[in-house]
């Protein structure tokens, strides 16, 4: 029997003790964390960090970001990926922007490999926050993947002046590689959000 | 790649618009440019896999999982229902995370400054997973209404927040369950941002069948996630 989709509603401002409890110091086990990869995980270990800006350029301190990515070999830990999953790497991370004084989000993970379907390596992102009635999908591409990005069919479909909003800038000046990925909800630099 | 099936699109006749001016926080936080269509690939038809192994022994009993020295105050309720896709197929072993205010309308969250008492025996967060037929259930306390700053004398109706993954990144859903007969529903900009024909899907039904005699009233709340496309996608 045909059913109709349950409508989305906002995550609201008070999600942290339910969805990101350990990060915020609440007494409930978290199912996911900003640390996506353990130290022994194969692949290049990277940090992703950024801020979310509202339409007035103010940083958002009550958002939640989720990421979903392939492992270093480009495999997803999911039954639909028939190549077999890497059991040690779930590829899923979750972070709130409410525990950092500068309202940054961050993930400690590994650099994803190319899935092998012509797309450049990328990390899938969902943004939730008070004031958003539906979550927003976007993607993180990686600035050092110049050739792969140039051949990526999704990036190719984005107007030139907006493509950069999807590309995280790699910084190798610190102890380990950091990719900076800011999310702009509105304005001239409004991030590309997808309908998928 | 084999078995590469996509998911039906988000039905924008069911979901609120990003920009819903009566809900004032949407003004600076909603995307202003049209969403860019994205053909589903392995990245979208896969997603995090969470089921029963993610649910601790007390996670589905919010009347006990935050208790420190007794029972929480308020009206005990059982919330139960099925998680289905648009074709009516049950979604088994899928995780549901819930969070809510206590009976007085106060959240445990440190940022909640509403002048109503915290309950030392109530936390308000929990989780459960669906069984093989898509059924879930958790026990809790009926959440109270609380004021918020959207406009003068604004009050949120009683509600419980729900977060679901379903089978893929494409089926992710965060929503809120409301209670039948709540007079605040007709005044709530978040509920009213939902297309009128779809609002009823956010309101639970009272269920005598789900009511546990002598213990807790029952409410039935079914959740429908995006269904699968019937034809394989192009690679």
**What is the number of domains of chain B?**
1
Number of helices of chain A: 5
| Helix/strand order of chain A | HHEEEEEEHHHEEEE
CATH architecture of chain B: Sandwich
Oligomer: heterodimer
Q: Give the low-pLDDT segments of chain A.
A: none
Walk me through this protein's architecture:
The complex is a heterodimer of chains A (196) and B (235). Chain A has a single domain, classed as Sandwich (Protocatechuate 3,4-Dioxygenase, subunit A), CATH 2.60.130. Chain A contains five helices and ten strands; from the N terminus they run ααββββββαααββββ. Chain A is globular and about 40 Å long. Chain B has 235 residues and is mostly beta strands. Chain B has a single domain, classed as Protocatechuate 3,4-Dioxygenase, subunit A (Sandwich). In chain B, the strands form three sheets. In chain B, strands 2, 5, 10, 11 and 12 form a five-stranded mixed β-sheet that branches. In chain B, strands 4-3-8-9 form a four-stranded antiparallel β-sheet, with no helix packed on it. Chain B has a two-stranded antiparallel ribbon with strand order 6-7. Chain B is globular and about 55 Å long. The model of chain B has no long low-confidence stretch (mean pLDDT 95). Chains A and B meet through α1, β5, β6 and β10 of A and β1, α1, β3, β4 and β9 of B. Chain B: Keywords: Dioxygenase, Oxidoreductase. Chain B: One of its GO terms (molecular function) is ferric iron binding. Chain B: It is an enzyme of class 1 (oxidoreductase). Chain B: This is Protocatechuate 3,4-dioxygenase subunit beta.
